[in-house]
Amino acid sequence: MSAVLDPHDAHAHDHDHHAPAGWRRWVYATNHKDIGTLYLLFAFTMLMVGGVLALLIRAELFQPGLQLVNPELFNQLTTMHGLIMVFGAIMPAFVGFANWMIPLQIGASDMAFARMNNFSFWLMIPAAIMLVASFFMPGGAPAAGWTLYAPLTLQMGPSMDAGIFAMHILGASSIMGSINIIVTILNMRAPGMTLMKMPMFCWTWLITAYLLIAVMPVLAGAITMTLTDRHFGTSFFNPAGGGDPVMYQHIFWFFGHPEVYIMILPAFGIVSQVVPAFARKKLFGYASMVYATGSIAILSFVVWAHHMFTTGMPVTGQLFFMYSTMLIAVPTGVKIFNWIATMWKGSMTFETPMLWAVGFIFVFTIGGFTGLILSMAPIDINFQDTYYVVAHFHYVLVAGSLFAMFAGIYYWLPKWTGVMYSEGRGKLHFWWSMISFNITFFPMHFLGLAGMPRRYADYPMQFADFNAIASVGAFAFGLAQVYFFLFVIVPAMRGVGPKAVQKPWDGAEGLEWEVPSPAPFHTFENPPKLDATATKVIG
Fold first, then answer.
1. Any catalytic annotation for residue 522?
2. Which of 32, 114, 186, 395 is the least crowded, having the fewest Cβ atoms under 10 Å away?
3. What phi, psi does 530 have (nearest 5°)?
4. Tell me, what CATH number does 296's domain have?
């Protein structure tokens, strides 16, 4: 029998009248749910912008020769597609999930610093506008690749400065959001919820927040050095003045590799919530999942130069980074083993969230194996900057981060909106996305094996067939996300659909299922009293 709320909180569902009305509710939002919604809508908007850039890239590559764009604009598109997707779509979306779910999962009334929460969201708007507007500046958008390698960045037009400023603002937003998440989790858990009783989603975000605080200043340092090289006569990365362009790569990837885990750890957390709910079993090896997450975070700081095997580093360095990269596959493998063990002999049903979670495990494992292949220096030297690398990181970031987000959206949407989405539409979205994603990115492995370099607007005839297939798949995948927004999200936001019960999923556990659907504007004004498992409220 489902537990009831603490008597002091019995009128939780009557608190909606406290919600401010109209535009003020959103502009001055301090409620974690409203800010979470703003983050998610912002992230989806940027996903669409970045997606349009990707489709322009794929349209150009549909056949050999130059069709739509010149090589300079092509490089601008690849650069801005990467920056917008990483900093504008994936990271803000996970912060949206954190804002919505962490207070609900730990029994907190809100995030620790509500006004700072508002500020960290609104900082992103001018940064996003600057990134998109860079296409209309003299000389066009930055065209140095999303990694912003010197010396190319030292030769770009004024849009490079706008990009650097935008990255600084986004970094400040990330750091503020991370401080908020850490303080909320450490200080505002309900009585009885020890750290080792927290939901896995909270654990993965706690570790991610520490990673963000550690590495965002490193990125800020790298781009500030680029800025002073451009305008103030320094020579950090300029060989003519005694600088070293390879030093930029070391600094960037010291940020960039933990960043990759920043974009996947919250996804692991979401999948660790969804799989036990639909297997109707406890998560297998909870403690080992927590330690594996911590291990991934620590090891992520000692693998950065596996992106740099072709820069002429000494063999000793190559060996160190090769073995440390192989080692990081161990805790990742522990997670995949634990998810499969959770499903083993479970009473599984395959509603849409579970389909996305199982789909995530399948495609993320493919991405993990290709990463293991790239970790080997002799192989990577041949695959460096080919489409094999493009295939690998899209399997990790699209099929990893994005698919896990979809699992989380379908899982928690009834709690967010108070209505059930259409199961048929959700499953159509899943199969349409899964098939078109693999049609798009699986052929890229073969293009890379055959030697097709990335970031080129033209290519020889031998690569034509696989590129045509990939481009068709990309347009199908893009359409699937438009379908998702129009036919799943919009009806849910308008309240169209059957009313959701408090706990729509049989096997779901956690405090978020102890409040009504939709979650009231104010929840847990008095901290809930928890049972021994810290998943239910004692009435």
1. no
2. 186
3. -100, 155
4. 1.20.210.10
